[in-house]
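Propose amino acids for all 389 sites.
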């Protein structure tokens, strides 16, 4: 099977969907597919980059085209790149903000239709219209933006005409079904490869540098909880932190909360937690190489997700924590659709919704599992869906 995986950006470490596509392509390639990766709207480069990407099975042809280049030229180069091996499947991985800074992807349906040509068409909607504007109580500005994004996505669906549509969450599938489009669930997976060697000594040295007196001998005196990437401004930490404080006192532990990755504007708020919660230790490790991120995740006792429960399966950060064997505390359940029911995520033994039972669960001990990457399972599921079509 020949597959072109197409997205807006493939900048390593700077674009979550791009990292997702790179990892998925590697697994598809390892399973015997002839893959090509194409980025059509790169904002971090000024000239086309035609260079293969390394994968478990060798190298995958990859072309990255800058957003600053006229569309006519981007179209010509993309056509030339794809015509070398006219792919059986054109697999579009879409998130609205990859195509416009406000997610208003006007006119892209025609462009995708032209590039796909005679190939069969798959669409992976990593997000539908902005989830912040599609919930009860959203400000008018965000509700209006969500409506505009929805109109753009509907126009793309009608023009691009995908045979198969996938998305990550049941709530997104429900929203699409109400517009007349069937979408199946393709699970998310983490973008952080699991480091083969765990290195707690490195992390403990880093935590001591931040003022936490921790070592192998004193490790059992602490709960290490982790935040990965975005710290959403809508998130209220007070309910969760009250539970953590009470549970930690009951078992005689101290809570250390560690942030790793880019917070995307949440740094000042993180620093403010030090004053509000002086009995906790807050450490911001920032952006780290993937191997170090994996080592941090493997050393934690639990992860904390600030994405709402209803859309938690869209979160690549939550997926990465789960793959590293962590129980993930989902500390928000405030997202509701304006009309109709709000489906929750599929059951998962390591996803824990914060509530009255959480304190006793913490005291009893949240179980960890062995790290296991899911990208291979997702690649196999995608191939099954394409083959069945």
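Proposal:
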């Amino acid at each position: 099977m020949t597959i072109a995986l197409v997205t807006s950006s493939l900048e390593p470490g700077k674009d979550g969907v791009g990292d997702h596509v790179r990892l998925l392509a590697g697994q598809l390639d390892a399973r015997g597919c002839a893959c090509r990766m194409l980025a059509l709207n790169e904002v971090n480069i000024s000239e086309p980059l035609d260079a293969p990407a390394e994968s478990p099975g060798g190298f995958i042809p990859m072309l990255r085209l800058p957003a600053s280049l006229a569309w006519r030229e981007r179209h010509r180069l993309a056509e030339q790149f794809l015509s070398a091996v006219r792919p059986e499947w054109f697999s579009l991985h879409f998130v609205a903000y990859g195509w416009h800074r406000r997610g208003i992807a006007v006119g892209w349906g025609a462009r995708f239709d032209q590039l796909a040509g005679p190939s069969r068409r798959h669409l992976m909607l990593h997000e539908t219209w902005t989830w912040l504007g599609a919930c009860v109580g959203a400000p008018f500005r965000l509700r209006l933006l969500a409506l505009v994004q929805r109109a753009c996505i509907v126009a793309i669906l009608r023009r691009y005409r995908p045979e198969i549509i996938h998305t990550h969450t049941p709530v997104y599938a429900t929203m699409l079904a109400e517009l007349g489009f069937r979408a199946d669930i393709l699970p998310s997976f983490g973008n952080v490869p699991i480091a083969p060697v765990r290195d707690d000594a490195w992390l403990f040295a880093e935590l001591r540098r931040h003022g936490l007196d921790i070592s192998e001998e004193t490790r059992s005196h602490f709960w290490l909880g982790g935040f990965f990437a975005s710290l959403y401004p809508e998130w209220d930490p007070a309910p969760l932190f009250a539970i953590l404080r009470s549970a930690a006192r009951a078992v005689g532990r101290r809570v250390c909360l560690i942030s790793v990755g880019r917070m995307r504007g949440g740094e000042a708020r993180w620093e403010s937690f030090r004053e509000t919660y002086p009995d906790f230790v807050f450490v911001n490790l920032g952006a780290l190489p993937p191997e170090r991120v994996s080592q941090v995740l493997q050393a934690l006792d639990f992860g904390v997700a600030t994405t709402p429960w209803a859309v938690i399966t869209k979160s690549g950060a939550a997926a990465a924590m789960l793959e590293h064997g962590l129980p993930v505390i989902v500390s928000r359940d405030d997202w509701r659709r304006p009309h109709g029911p709000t489906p929750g995520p599929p059951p998962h033994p390591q996803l824990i919704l914060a509530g009255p039972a959480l304190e006793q669960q913490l005291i009893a001990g949240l179980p960890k599992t062995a790290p296991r990457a899911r990208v291979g399972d997702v690649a196999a599921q995608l191939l099954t869906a394409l083959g069945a079509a």
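The CA atoms of residues 215 and 276 lie 26 Å apart. DSSP finds twelve helices and 16 strands in the chain.
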